[in-house]
Structures are given as C-alpha cells and as structure tokens.
Design a protein that fits this description.
The termini are far apart. Helix content is about 75%, strand content about 10%. It has helices at about 10-25, 25-35, 40-50, 70-155, 160-260, 265-345, and strands spanning about 55, 60, 355-365, 365-375, 380-385, 385-395, 400-405.
Amino acid sequence: MLVSRGLITPDQLEFALTEQNATGRPLGEIIVARGFAAAPTIAQALATQHGGLLKTEYGFATGWGGAPGASAPAVEHDAMNQSEVTLRASLEEHKAALAAWQQAHADLQAELAARKASIDQLEAGARSLEAARVDLERALAAEVERGAALRAELDGAGASESVRSELEQRLASAEADSRQRLDAAQEEFASARAELETRLAQAHERVASLEGELAAREATLEAAATERVESATTDLERRLAEAHAHAAALEAELARRDAEGDAASQERIAAAELEQRLAEAHERAAALEAQLAERDAVSQERLDGARSEFEAARAELEQRLAEAQERVVSLEAELAGRETAVEAEVPDGRWDAADAHLLFFLGTDGYELVERAGPPPPAGSSVDGRVVLRIAAGPVPGNALPCAYLLD
C-alpha cells in the first residue's frame, strides 16, 4: 500500500521486510525507525487496512480511502517533511559557520606559535649578548694582567733606558689594543640593543594587529550569529503563523461540517493531529534555539581564551624588553667603570716630556688623526676651538705617541 501510493520505494520495503524477518518487529515500526515514512503515515495505512477510524500507537487515523494511486497522501507527506528538511538545512548552515570559526581560531593559534618563535629568537640574541659580555670580561682581565706584568717589568728594569723605552712601547701598544677592543665591544652592544628594541617594537605592533583582527572577528561572529538567530526566529515565526492559519482554516471547515453534520468526528481527529504537529514544531524550534545559544556560549569562551593568550604574550614581551634594557645599562656602567680604571692606571705627567703628540677629532669627512710637535695639551684645554676630552695612548697600534681626544 505504501509503495503503491509513492510513500516509500520498493527498495525501502524490501529492506524493511528483510529486517522484519530477522527481528520479528512490526513492519510499521521498522519503517518509522529507519526514517522511510512518518508515524502519522503508518497510522493512516493501518486505519486503511482496518477499514476506518482506528487508534494506533502512532495516534488516531481514519484511513485514506479512494484509489491506491491517489496523489493526495503524497502531497500530505511532502508537506509534513518540508519543515524537517528546512530545519536540517538550517542546522547544516550553523555547522558550516562553526567550522569556519574553528578554522579562524586555528589560524590565530598558528600566529601565536609564530610569535613564540620570535620570542625564542630574542632570547637567543640576549644569550649572545651575555656570551659577548663574558668574553669581554675575560679579555679585560687578561689585559689588566698583561699591563700589570709590563709595569712590573718596567719597575724592575732599573736605569736601563732602552729596556724602559721598549717596555713603555709595549705597554702603550697593549693599552691601545685594549681601548680598540673596548670601543668595538661598545659598538657591538649598542647595535645589539638597537636590534632588540626594533624586534620588540615589531612584536608589539604585531600583537596590536592581532588584537584588532581578533576584535573584528568577534564583531563579525557576533553579527553573523545574531543574523542567523534572527533569521531562524523569523522563519520559525512564519511557519508557526502558517500553521496557525492552516489550523484556523481547518477549524472553520470543522465548524462548517459540524453545522452540516458531515463527518465531524474525522475533522476533529485531523485537528488533533494538526495540534500535535504544531506542538512538535514548537519543540523543534526550542531545541534549535537552545543549540544556537550553546554554540554562541562556546564561541565566546574560545574567543576569551584567545584574548587571554594574547595578553600573556604581550606581558611576557614587555618583561623581556625591560630585562634586556637593564642588561644593556649594566654593561654600559661596567664599561664606563673599566674605562675609568684603565685611565686611572696611567701615571700623571707621563707624556709631559713627549717630543710630539696626536690629535684625534671628528672632521668634515670623518674622524681625523693629526700629529703635532711637543707634549700633548692638558685635558680640559682648548685646541682649534675643540675641547680636550682626555689624554691617552694613540689609537694606532705600534705608535707610542700620546693622543689628545678632542670634542666639538
């Protein structure tokens, strides 16, 4: 009967019969459980077999009547399933939106991993600075020991002018080499600090960009979720209005038939079935709204977690920047102290009897080194409009002449 009316296919009937032979369950129960046909359709089929009004486990039914090939039941079946098909399509749309959000969240996690890799690079740079500082300390210690040994040789040389002159030249060469290495180390530290500051600034900019992108995605997700909820609500309200209109039409028809006294009981059964369908539609709408609310809550929770991760990464970057700056300040203070210590080791009046001296200053085309006769000018005096900053060994290895470092 169901196959002849186009309500199930022959393959579905064959499958249901096979399962009935294996399990002994009623055929109608199997067809409903497999989703081949709705429960009211089975009730109508049973009532048709019974020959009239029948109360079944699927509700009251009066039977179809008429020729088996009538098309009215098929139309009724399509109308019954249309609501379910539309609801399933809406759920699929929400699943697709959730998958898109999950992909966006995965992209944010990948970006966070890249930020962590950048932080690791900054840490490697800091470790390189620390290693350079250790090497510099070792080199300075070696130079101090070397200077002490040379001075000890100078003190023990007695009155031999040749030995004293040779040792003085060696001492001047060692001091010049130490000064050159100190200057090179200071430039290296300055360059490393500038690079760290640049990278950390770029990291801050990227964090700000990610925060903006996250805020934009949150706004977009909230707008899309609101739009979907409003659309689903509007669609459900429209369906309910149509169902109420249909129910009102049926009630009017029932009233007319009651007045005419024609098949009143059958129309009341149809109205009861319609009310049952309306109740099921309300339940489906409530379940869909609850599911949407749950997914919105999960999405908000994941967005809050991503924002917390961004805040933690930014705080960590700021802390490491502060530590790097403290290290640079400490190294600069240490270099200044060592420069003062090296200068203090040079005896006063050492170059008062020098036959010539060097002037080191910043010219128009770069730094210049000029040799002049006589001892060097004292520190704090003025030479060619420039102030003598300090007197020390010359920057050229092997040249024992004293050098006056000038400042504009």
